[in-house]
Design a protein that fits this description.
With about 800 residues, the protein is α+β, with helices and mostly antiparallel strands. The chain folds into 4 domains: about 200 residues, no CATH class; about 190 residues, no CATH class; about 160 residues, no CATH class; about 190 residues, no CATH class. Helix content is about 50%, strand content about 15%. It has 26 helices and 21 strands. The strands form 3 sheets. A 6-stranded mixed beta barrel has the order 2-3-8-5-7-6. A 6-stranded mixed barrel has the order 13-14-19-16-18-17. A hairpin with a 5-residue loop joins strand 2 and strand 3. Helix 11 runs parallel beside helix 14, helix 16 runs antiparallel to helix 22 and helix 22 runs parallel beside helix 25. The chain starts with a helix and ends with a helix. The relative contact order is 0.11.
Length: about 800
């Protein structure tokens, strides 16, 4: 222990004695370790941290699977059968996300809400912070109108009042009594609800239709000793049984059972793991760079080490001395890296936006500190090993020979050259991958969404069923809001729709074509379904290709009409005009459901920029069928100026009509479009930053090697100049050496980049695995940066004085 303390103290003295070396090495390591710490902090919070429930590994999510929809929320009827028949679970419950409007004292507020079965709290192992959770009879009947509220809502609307239990809330114009307070930070399925309501009272109002999927998300807890595979096998059997019982609805439908945590992070996991691999390469480059610096330092210290060996120091003692210095260097770099990571994490979370789970608390904790410490120790041993072995294997006679002092063996120079080639190859690999993602994102961003995006303000209008229970009265309310919005100064036109384009959401519905009944249950046809106002299509600038658009005359009592998009026309009416054809909503022909006449065909609108436009129909909201009541619309305003300036005017206009009606998420269409590509933008920007960091560290490494090479070759350069070599020839000699190492690394990196492009294939949009333009561009960039790094050492070599150089050592 005493000798180790002496080694540490000696290493600190050595580091203080060479501030230039120490500063460069610490900064290099801080960048590499800090980047890894920041990314690991996000990965730990999103992928590794256990869910905040009792025995979270036993929790599973269940969903339906059909050939068209790989992961689908359950119908209530199927969920009820699963719950009654399954024996693999201690309990099964359901969750449904929704929004409710809070009115009463103060401004109306739109709250995030969830409906839960009463057994969900016991299933998760969660208790109320105050009060109680739902009783089984309250869930089954719901007559009491009970609710639980979040800690945040308690503080915000009740000022943390001690007597909050028993107080009344008005949600969607219905009274509810607060019976319990949710724990701080409570979340279910990555949602942090303001209000929790019983599930069953709402579920019992649903139509008896197994093809109706209103966002029911079942969850369950495995019984002790039951494996995930056993549960999946049982649910497969239940699925086949239901398929035989209800062939018209469940044919082709299977049941998916996944671990809860695995399914919740399924979308973001591949991107985060890809970024973790990239940041690992950055750290390898940093370690390679510091190893090069330590090799140069070892050459200068070989006489000191030879003396230590001559007076009795063992090889292990020499290795430990060097490794102690390198690990100490890494720990200092880790401390600075932690500071950089702490500053970078908030920026990472902001950059991630909607691509990261909204409820995730991303912060540096004890797990991250332990990871950073272990990483620093491993890195210190990694980059210190080569210099340590080199020092331990010194030839004493050569090292103690005064005339040989300062010389460097060809083996060391080859090793340093190999390290530079490795740095360049890794940097090239990252640049190729980043270049592919940048090209891919550029193409994705340039995809035409099918409508004019500029000068559009949008806002969500979510109407309480209790405030406007009658569809006719509700339609009149929608009419007043749209007309008032259209009359605002600076508004050119206004419309509304149930779902906005390029939003990742929508309603998909079965329908029938007149005189084309389905031949069997698996041949039901489906399309995206939107209810819209008369001027919606015109406001967005969606082109009319055939027929006419929806007008004010298309209202209740008038013949039902529908407008379809180009893809739907080509899919279901190839080589014929769809105008005049009649469609009926529903899985099977029904005499009580009206037939809608196709009156127009419009251009395709993207629901996602990365996919083809789906089949889609537009129905006037005034003619929506009773089984599909319209409560929520999104307003769309085409403005003549900056749309953001109309946000307050639009809110005031809605409050003039109904002071209790809130507007939610007022934003521009450009912001909406930007949010739809948050995940590809996150991974592209992050990988581009890491590739730039790798390029910088590699440039510093090349500069260090070339500068050291020039200092070691001073005598050789002086001899060349004495024999007649010109400064230009010396300049080209040094540049040539650096260029040779760079080009070897570029070629290796290009080959590796082509191989790694296959790993990125799932992230690329309209980009091939081999992109000559991208690869040539990044190769030229890296070569140019390398030549710049070689320039200063090369210029220094041309200024060597032959007389002084020949007396060197």
């Amino acid at each position: 222990m005493t000798s180790l303390f002496l080694d540490v103290r000696y290493a600190l003295r050595r580091l203080r004695a060479t501030p230039g070396f120490t500063t460069i090495a610490v900064l290099t390591l801080a960048l590499g370790i800090g980047a890894n710490t920041a990314i690991f902090t996000v990965i730990d919070a999103v992928l590794l941290r256990p869910l905040p429930y009792r025995d979270p590994s036993q929790l599973v999510l269940l969903s339906e699977h059909t050939p068209r929809f790989p992961l689908l929320s359950a119908s209530y009827q199927n969920f009820a059968d699963w719950r009654d028949q399954a024996q693999s679970f201690t309990a099964m419950g359901a969750v449904r996300n929704l929004g409710v409007t809070l009115t009463g004292s103060g401004e109306p507020e739109r709250l995030t809400a969830q409906m839960l079965n009463a057994n969900i709290f016991d299933l998760l192992g969660v208790q109320a912070a105050r009060g109680r959770t739902f009783l089984p009879e309250e869930d089954r009947q719901g007559a009491a109108g009970v609710a639980m509220i979040s800690y945040g809502l308690w503080q915000r609307r009740f000022a943390g009042a001690e007597n909050v239990l028993g107080q009344s809330l008005t949600l969607d114009n219905k009274p509810y009594t607060v019976i319990g307070l949710l724990p701080a930070g409570f979340q279910v399925l990555q949602q942090s609800p303001d209000v929790v309501l019983p599930f069953e009272p709402w579920a019992k109002t649903l139509p008896d239709d197994r093809m109706w999927h209103p966002g029911i998300l079942p969850m369950a807890r495995l019984k002790p000793g039951v494996t995930l595979e056993q549960a999946r096998s049982e649910m497969t059997t239940i699925g086949k049984r239901l398929e035989q019982q209800y062939p018209n609805f469940d044919t082709g439908t299977s049941i998916i059972v996944n671990q809860m945590q695995s399914q919740l992070v399924d979308n973001v996991r591949p991107a985060l793991l890809m970024i973790l691999g990239a940041v690992g390469f950055v750290l390898l480059i940093a370690c390679t760079n510091v190893a090069n610096l330590l090799l140069a330092r070892a050459t200068a210290r070989k006489r000191e080490i030879a003396v230590r060996t001559a007076i009795g120091a063992s090889r292990w003692r020499v290795v430990r001395l060097v490794l102690t210095e390198s690990i100490l260097l890494a720990l200092i770099g880790a401390v600075l890296g932690l500071l950089l990571a702490n500053a970078a994490v908030p920026a990472l979370v902001h950059l991630g936006g909607t691509s990261l789970p909204a409820s995730t608390n991303v912060s540096i904790d004890s797990t991250v500190l332990l990871f950073t410490t272990l990483l620093a120790v491993v890195c210190g041993m990694l980059f210190g090993l080569a210099p340590a072995l080199h020092m331990a294997g010194l030839d004493l006679r050569s090292a103690l020979n005064e005339t040989d002092r300062g010389a460097v063996g060809s083996g060391v120079m080859k090793l340093r050259g190999a390290l530079v080639v490795s740095e360049v190859a890794l940097a090239m690999l990252l640049l190729v991958c980043a270049g592919l993602l940048v090209r891919s994102f550029d193409r994705l961003s340039s995809v035409a969404p099918g409508f004019s995006v500029d000068h559009i303000l949008i806002a969500d209008l979510l109407v309480s069923p209790a405030a406007h229970p009658d569809q006719t009265e509700r339609n009149a309310f929608f009419d007043r809001v749209v007309e008032r919005a259209a009359s605002l100064p600076g508004v050119r036109s206004a419309g509304a729709a149930s779902f906005l384009p390029v939003s990742g959401t929508g309603s998909i519905i079965s329908f029938n074509i007149e005189n084309r009944p389905p031949k069997n249950p698996t041949e039901y046809v489906m399309a995206n379904y939107r209810v819209v106002s008369p001027d919606y299509l015109k406001t967005l600038g969606i082109p009319l290709l055939n027929g006419r658009l929806i007008t004010d005359a298309d209202r209740q009592g008038a013949p039902p009409v529908v407008v379809i998009n180009t893809t739907m026309a080509k899919t279901f009416f190839p080589n014929e005009s769809p105008l005049g054809k009649r469609l009926q909503l529903g899985a099977e022909p029904d005499k009580d459901t009206p037939w809608m006449e196709v009156i127009g065909v419009v251009g395709d609108v993207k629901q996602s920029l990365a996919s083809e436009a789906p089949t889609e129909m537009y129905v006037p909201y005034r003619q929506a069928i009773k089984d599909l009541p319209v409560f929520n619309l999104s307003l769309v305003l085409r403005t003549s100026g900056d749309p953001r300036t109309l946000a307050s005017s639009l809110t005031s206009a809605v409050h003039e009509i109904d002071p209790h009606q809130p507007l939610v998420k007022i934003r521009t269409m450009e912001e909406n479009l930007s949010a739809s590509v948050a995940q590809p933008r996150f991974r592209t920007i992050l990988l581009a930053i890491l590739a730039s960091l790798a390029l910088l560290i590699a440039a510093v490494g090349i500069y260090g090697v070339m500068a050291f090479s020039v200092s070691q070759r001073t005598r050789e350069i002086g001899t060349r100049m004495a024999l007649g070599s010109t400064p230009g020839q010396i300049f080209h000699l040094v540049i040539g050496d650096g260029l040779r190492l760079t080009l070897i690394g570029v070629v290796i990196g290009l080959v590796a980049g082509v191989a790694f492009a296959r790993v990125l294939s799932s992230f690329l949009f309209q980009i091939g695995l081999v992109e000559p333009f991208t690869m040539v561009a990044v190769a030229v960039l890296l070569t140019a940066v390398a030549l710049t790094a070689c320039y200063i050492p090369a210029r220094r070599a041309t200024r060597v004085n032959p007389t002084v150089a020949l007396r060197y050592e």
